[in-house]
Design brief:
By secondary structure, this protein is mainly beta. It is 13% helix and 44% strand.
């Protein structure tokens, strides 16, 4: 009987484990710059770039893993699928740079 109660308690506690929820990390594009420049994320998180400039920008990974066009007064999102370090820039303004650090 006691072994059955222990097994039931273990099953119940395992059922109560709640996985961590994904987050949305926001980056603003303003005055030809990303803010913040460096961000941290976890696999499964979403990064949202919001362009408040009056010209188009891109968020383009140096390793070509992503390339997003962000039109003026619009947003673009990317759900992170891979851990690692990612440098990115704007194709139209190469001095605009950012960095994403992604953990499992």
């Amino acid at each position: 009987m006691r072994a059955g109660l222990i097994a039931f308690a273990m099953t119940l506690s395992a059922a109560l484990v709640i996985p961590a929820s994904a987050e949305t990390i926001k980056v603003t594009i303003d005055k030809v710059a990303y803010a913040p420049v460096k961000i941290s994320a976890r696999v499964g998180d979403t990064i949202e770039w919001s362009n408040v400039d009056f010209v188009a920008h891109t968020s383009t990974a140096r390793d070509k893993s992503f390339d997003l066009m962000v039109m003026p007064n619009k947003k673009q999102t990317l759900t992170v699928r891979t851990a690692g370090e990612f440098d990115y820039y704007c194709k139209f303004h190469p001095n605009m740079t950012g960095h994403i650090s992604v953990k499992e």
